[in-house]
Design goal:
Strand 2 and strand 3 form a beta hairpin. The strands form three sheets. Strands 1, 2, 3, 4, 5 and 9 form a six-stranded mixed β-sheet that branches. The chain has a five-stranded mixed β-sheet with strand order 12-11-10-13-14, covered by helices on one side. A three-stranded antiparallel β-sheet has the order 6-8-7. The chain is globular, with a radius of gyration of 21 Å. It has twelve helices and 14 strands. The protein is about 35% helix and about 25% strand. It is α/β, with parallel strands linked by helices. The chain folds into two domains: about 180 residues, Nucleotidyltransferase, domain 5, CATH 3.30.420.40; about 120 residues, ATPase, nucleotide binding domain (Nucleotidyltransferase, domain 5).
């Protein structure tokens, strides 16, 4: 492996020196932590876990989250610790604001929860490019060169010396869906961006073992949930976060498409703030309390106030827009990628804090007519009691949990 293709600490691996197919693009490091990277066991969890893995750390637009998984004595995984710190910085999702404030915020987070050592972290969506590329049918040994040429065209560069990228090739079942074309999910990022991001974590006393694209980090969690997936099954994954929403199409257990959607948690909060002429904090509070009604569902737990009714009125059309975006995005995938060989999906898996918005699940099921599953780490793994978890490990922790799974002991 040439020095041009890997940093001195080996965080980034060259795609061309790789001889083992990885289940998902791992872009910036190993899929699983070697045994020497397992963390020392704190006395508070010594009796409960045989081993604990490095933290998965997710820096979103509204909070910083960390999850640590442990191998339970007797077998299986459980959430050992989870922490969340709200980001109270205006316009943190703006790249320039994030660049200026992130070092201080991360330092505060690390100090507050006494984090140290190895970790897996996610890259911001705006710093990573994800492309599903179709190549003509060709021998496997010709794919790297063909992909290199295609990446140069897409990134509009003469060479890839300043770019890290990784890829995974679609399996045989999905090649059939592509009319025997070669499907490649490719992920790329600028070397300087990666280095600067790693430096922030290292300055905070952490040792990143790998970085992953935020848009793909939940796939490990979904794969764990659906490890008995049925051949031919088509799933849609929607990560409804505060600052970004992404939809992935998963066919036969492989990601075939990743696309951004317009409606985000912050977009909804902003609409409430504007409509009710209130503060951001109050709009966020009302969003969580009131949720929305599709016009069919009513809440019997309490009588809604005029203000809550107003919030529902604001949110309802935005959720209608989200459903249309999901439908149109899937139709694009169906027509453009599979040439209409895949015309429907079997279920939707939801992650992100927006997935717990009151009224959202029954609304989505009613509109799309498919099974809706919320990827809740606490429900998937269970949580250890009495170990100072810090925060409940709900759907908003899915990215951090997916990252933490990279270091888990299977």
């Amino acid at each position: 492996m040439s020095e041009n293709n890997v940093d001195k600490k080996g965080i980034v691996s060259s795609i061309f020196d790789r001889d083992v197919k990885k289940p998902v693009p791992t872009l910036f490091g190993p899929a699983n932590a070697p045994k020497e990277n397992m963390q020392p066991i704190a006395s508070g969890v010594r009796m409960m876990f045989a081993k604990v893995a490095p933290y998965g750390i997710d820096i979103g637009s509204s909070s910083i989250k960390a999850v640590q998984l442990g191998s339970v004595k007797g077998g299986g995984l459980s959430v050992a610790r989870s922490f969340k710190m709200d980001i109270e910085v205006e316009n943190f999702s703006d790249p320039s604001v994030r660049e200026q404030t992130l070092p201080g915020l991360l330092g505060e987070f690390v100090s507050k929860y006494k984090l140290r050592g190895n970790c897996y972290v996610s890259m911001p969506p705006d710093k990573v490019a994800i492309n599903f590329i179709e190549l003509p049918d060709m021998p496997d040994n010709e794919i790297p060169k063909a992909l290199e040429w295609e990446m140069k065209q897409r990134l509009r560069v003469d060479d890839l010396n300043d770019i890290y990228f990784d890829y995974v090739v679609a399996g045989a079942a999905n090649r059939v869906l592509l009319n025997n074309r070669v499907g490649v999910l490719a992920v790329s990022a600028e070397k300087k961006v990666i280095k600067d991001y790693l430096d922030i974590f290292r300055a905070g006393g952490l040792n990143p073992l790998a970085l992953d694209a935020e848009q793909l980090s939940t796939f490990a969690l979904i794969e764990y949930m659906k490890r008995d997936h049925v051949d031919g099954e088509v799933m849609v994954s929607v990560e409804l976060g505060a600052g970004s929403t992404y939809m992935s199409v998963i066919c036969n257990g492989e990601i075939m498409s990743v696309r951004p959607l317009r409606i985000t948690g912050n977009y909804i909060t902003g609409a409430i703030k504007k409509s009710l002429n209130t503060t951001w904090a109050e709009a966020e509070k009302l969003k969580k309390k009131a949720g929305f009604s599709s016009g069919v569902h009513v809440y019997e737990s309490h009588t809604t106030t005029v203000e809550e009714t107003s919030v529902m009125t604001v949110i309802s059309p935005l959720m209608e827009d989200l459903v249309r975006d999901i439908e149109h995005t899937f139709k694009y995938f169906s027509h453009q990628v599979t040439r209409s060989q895949v015309v429907r999906f079997d279920k939707i898996i939801l992650t992100g804090g927006g997935s717990v918005l009151k009224g959202f699940l029954p609304f989505l099921k009613e509109k799309l007519g498919v099974e809706i599953i919320v990827a809740d780490p606490a429900g998937i793994f269970g949580t250890a009691s009495g170990v100072g978890k810090g925060e409940a490990c709900g759907p908003e922790m899915a990215v951090a949990c997916g990252l933490a799974m990279r270091g888990s002991v299977k």
